[in-house]
Amino acid sequence: AGHAGKSIPCSAKSAPRKNRMIGVAAREDQSEAVREFFQLFKTHWEFYEESHIYEVVIATAPDFSGADARLTIICGAGQRPLDSSGCIQTVPVDGGAFLQTDHVEFPVYKSLSAIRGEGRHILRVKGGADVAGMEIEKSGRRIIRVGYDLFEEVCFLLSTGQPPENAAIPTLDLHIALLRSWMLDCGISLVEIPPV
Fold first, then answer.
1. CA–CA separation, 63 vs 81, rounded Å?
2. Separation between Cα atoms, residue 111 and residue 147, nearest integer Å
3. I need a surface site. Which of 7, 46, 152, 165 has the fewest CB within 10 A?
4. Does residue 40 contact residue 176 with C-beta atoms inside 8 Å?
């Protein structure tokens, strides 16, 4: 069983790292949603290149099998290649759920799975015992596994929009704030891109 509590420290490599902030390993059909997302989350990023070294990798591509990064955030309701090595199981959860951290709650509109395995619980499904986000340490690096696809959510929010009952919730801003908090918690400095 997983646990809640103290965060796992991120190790820093002693060798110098290239200043590529975030690598995004997304499905090809999500490229526009990724670009739109980073118009709002104003920090340096690029589509993931296997030969590059990143501080952070955000992965929604179902075939993504890992990276040399201080922090890897794996998003999606289905099983991913890294799940088997980390003994993670995904169990589908009914749609229309709200997720909670210690500080905020927000709706998820597309596919969602509970995450089961050994790790620190960082995101819960409201109104139950299911965990939707877990932090794991593997080989001195931090992996965050969440049970929804970030860029599917972004695409939905930008194209369809939220139902009236959730219109007052700044869901997209909360997704950004959550990513920012995970990166800062790992000791990764965010370089904001100033407005042009």
1. 7
2. 8
3. 165
4. yes
Task: Report d(CA 43, CA 47) in Å as an integer.
Answer: 13
Residues in Cβ contact with 173 at an 8 Å cutoff, skipping those fewer than 6 apart: 40
- Give the Cα separation of 6 and 21 in Å (integer): 25
* Token pair of 6 as six digits: 């103290």
Q: What is the pTM of this model?
A: 0.87
Question: Are 110 and 156 a contacting pair, CB within 8 Å?
Answer: yes
d(CA 177, CA 175): 6
Helices 150-159 and 171-185: angle between axes, nearest 10 degrees? 150
Question: Which two three-digit tokens encode residue 30?
Answer: 């999500």
SS (H, E, C) 173-191: HHHHHHHHHHHHHCCCCCC
As a whole number of angstroms, the distance between CA 151 and CA 35 comes to: 10
Question: Residue 22 carries which side chain, given as an amino acid letter?
Answer: I
CB atoms within 10 A of CB 40: 12
Tens-digit pLDDT profile for residues 96-140 = 899 999 889 999 999 999 999 989 999 999 998 999 999 998 778
Strands 54-59 and 22-25, by their bridges, are parallel
pLDDT of residue 17: 47
Give me 165's structure tokens. Answer: 């009952």
The DSSP 8-state label assigned to residue 195 in this structure reads P
Instruction: Confirm if 7 and 29 have CB atoms less than 8 A apart.
Output: no
